[in-house]
Design a protein that fits this description.
This protein is an alpha/beta fold. About 25% of the residues lie in helices and about 25% in strands. α2 crosses α11 and α11 (about 300-310) packs across α12 (about 320-330). It binds one RNA strand of 76 nucleotides through α5, β6, α7, β11 and α12.
Length: about 550
Amino acid sequence: MEEMSNFIKTIMINDLESGKVKAILTRFPPEPNAYLHIGHARAIITNFELAESFGGETNLRFDDTNPAKEDVEFVEAIKKDIEWLGYHPAKVLFGSDYFDKTYELAVALIKKGLAYICDLTPEETSKYRGDFNTAGVESPYRNRSVAENLELFSNMRAGKYKEEERVLRAKIDMASPNINMRDPILYRILYINHHRTKDKWCIYPMYDFAHPIQDAIEGITHSLCSLEYENHRPLYDWVVEKCEMPNVPQQIEFGRLNITNTVMSKRYLRELVNNKLVLSYDDPRMPTLVGLARRGYTPESIKNFVKASGLSRINSTIEGEMLEHFLREDLKLKANRLMAVVEPLKVVITNYDEGKVEYLEAANNTENEELGTRKIAFSRHLYIDKNDFVIEKPDKRYKRLALGLEVRLFHAYFIKANEVIYDADGNIGEIHCTYDPETKSGSGFNERKPNGTIQFVEASTAIPATFNLFDTLVIDNPGDNRSFLERFNPDSWIIKPGFVEGVRKNFAVLERFQFVRDGYYAVDKDSNKDRLCFNRIVSLKSAIK
RNA sequence: AGGGCUAUAGCCAAGUGGUAAGGCAACAGGCUCUGACCCUGUCAUUCCGUAGGUUCGAAUCCUACUAGCCCUGCCA
């Protein structure tokens, strides 16, 4: 599990050994325009873990060069998410911190004759750019004098032109097969209040110009980004070279991470929230980090998942089962395992005194003694799960309760089902059982084997709970022609009322239950910290299928 | 169509000339006061997109082909 992102690691090792770099410095550069999701986790974890493995560091730098889309709400949320994952950026920076320097470098480029002010309209610019099969046509403004460019650029900054009236362009090659090199725009005019620099600027650098400069200024050694920036690397390198940055960062691309049956795009997530199909960005159905946290995912489980799933130059779609596996694994020894009943079925212990309640000792986690024990109630009136009872044992593999059979109630006694009481509709209403005092949990009773072990809760002390049954990630049916919003089915989030055992001291009422394939766990509704239960197996398996 | 990139099992993914790691999923069995967990076994038998070639020897080198992804925002 410690081995990850080998191809990048190899590059770093080589650079360190050859003396090209002295220490590794990476950065995570989100644009503060959305909440982070599990896909971003790959970038965060890769950057931090890789740097750390070489004793290096990682900066958090907000890429805020487009004030039209960005907001402080997101920078705060992103900071929290990174903290939640357990990472500590060496520095927290903003692209806008470098606006002065970026401007200076643009001026320097103009002086070198490597950049010019272009008066073409956006439409004309696009037309002049050509296409995949046609070389671009040089802008008529391409050969303005340095002096004129300098004056025009200064005027741009001073707010003498309207938006879209002029831009600063790099003078590279209009015939390049890489369209990014056909005199890319470096600066555009935007009369928008920036969330940090307010109205100081009315011109803003484009990503392609700002990003390499920011990396170089900070001394970033390896600038990791996703595959779609491959075509931008020549431009990235051009900027670093022509701006004569003393520090030369290296851009390395890697594939994005997707999860099956999950929608990850910012646009769709935003639509879900804006159309109120989910409660908010931290709705448990969302693949955002805050959503996953609310569903009970631990930072460790996400980190282990990302590390184990590796990294390559391929956009991967990993099965959701793998994410769940790492959650189960992480929770296995950490979580207190309480008992719960999703679909309650009344059980009356006919040979137990009415009104008496006894308390039995139960391990909070049978695999981890350190989590201690708790007292659980037992009385004449109990609930078990409907799925744990059938009239007649269907086959030898059936390990639950049936009429005439005996099972162990986990942490308590053997009970034997003697009679089924039907309700007015003819459905199974309750079961009358007898218990055997000699089989008390921990007594070492060994004279006969029960037909399995099931969970229960004591009726008078049980706490009503809400179970979210299918609150998986957002559903996406690829073959369906309807719009994404129409395909999203909020009802896939099935909520069932049930009970959780009610005797415990240190936990608030549990409200949200997340089913993870063969087990489930609950999240404390207030603190979001305590994760409980990892027990009930059978009924959930059948419920999910 | 021009350019760039990628192709290893159902899903991820190691491997860079020496005879296909690992994880998830799946299947079979064992154990069990949770049918979970745990344990055991099976899961690419000349095979690494296809076809050729070089070599004593290739997934790894060469050639050709095929498929997929990205690129014509004053987004990032």
